[in-house]
Every structure is written in C-alpha cells, then in structure tokens.
Amino acid sequence: MRLICGIPAANTKALQCLRSRFISRRTTYGTEADFFNGATDADLMTLSTISIFRAYPELERENLNRDNLSSQLMSFLEMERFWEAHEIMEIPWKKCKDKSPIHGFIRILVSQVKWQMRQEELYDSVLEDGVSEIQKSMKLGIEDIVTVKEYPVKFRERFLKEIIRIAEANI
Hints:
By secondary structure, the chain is α+β, with helices and mostly antiparallel strands. Helices cover 56% and strands 16% of the residues. A hairpin with a 5-residue loop joins strand 5 and strand 6 (154-155).
C-alpha cells in the first residue's frame, strides 16, 4: 500500500518541506508526496494536521490480464496516477508487433508525470512526441486523441477504447 499526502497549494511552508524531503508531484487538487521508508512518526503527525491522506494500492503487474487491464488503467487515469498507468501499458507494449500506438500513449502518460514533477521544459516535448507517434501510426488528428491537451490530458473515449483493445490483444 502506498500512502500519499495531499497538500493544498496555499500551504507553501508544507510544500517546501515536502519537495525537499520526499518524492512529490503536483495534481489538480494540490501536491502529493509519497512516503516509503523516509517518513518519521513526527513527519506524519505534522503533515496529518495540514493535509489529506490517501492510500492507493500498489500496481500488481503479475495479476494484470485482459479482464482487468481496462479497469486498472481507467482507475489510475481518473486518480491522476500517470506513472502507474504508464507501467500498466508497458506490459502489452513489450509484446506488440506494432509498438507505435501504445508507445505514443505511454509518452503522453510520461508527459503528465513530467508536469507533476515540475519539469515543464520536458512536458511539452514529450507530449508532442507521443501525440505525433499516435498520429502517424493510427492516422488520427490531435482532436481524435484528446479533448484537453494540457494537464491533465483528457483522452477521447473512442481513442482509449482502441488503445485498450490493442493492449488487451497483446497481454
């Protein structure tokens, strides 16, 4: 289980502490910090007074199959867990003959992680690379892939269904 602390953007002192001591990423609802082995009881007590805690299940790669790929992927996208969504898609990507559609999708997911990690200089180029790869391999325009091209991207339902179909065929 992963424990994540969400800090509202207005709490700048807590955000500075988190960014310097823990893996942090921004989201639409504030900043998240992952606690693995680095948090002390005092850290957790302090943060519990100023934050919202969420617990997320870890990605279970060995249990990923055609029956649950779609639900796991959609769940991670909804929670803005783009790294985990990217890891789910790497499993079928490694088995695909035509890697371009899934690889382009993975690149878009990685662009979202870059934004969360405040690496804006990489965000745009990784996003553009992913979109370009999908456009070439699937003959789709940007408007066929996403409805929102900023953080967080919003994928077209039809596009997601096709990517999931390709992925499920390769698990």
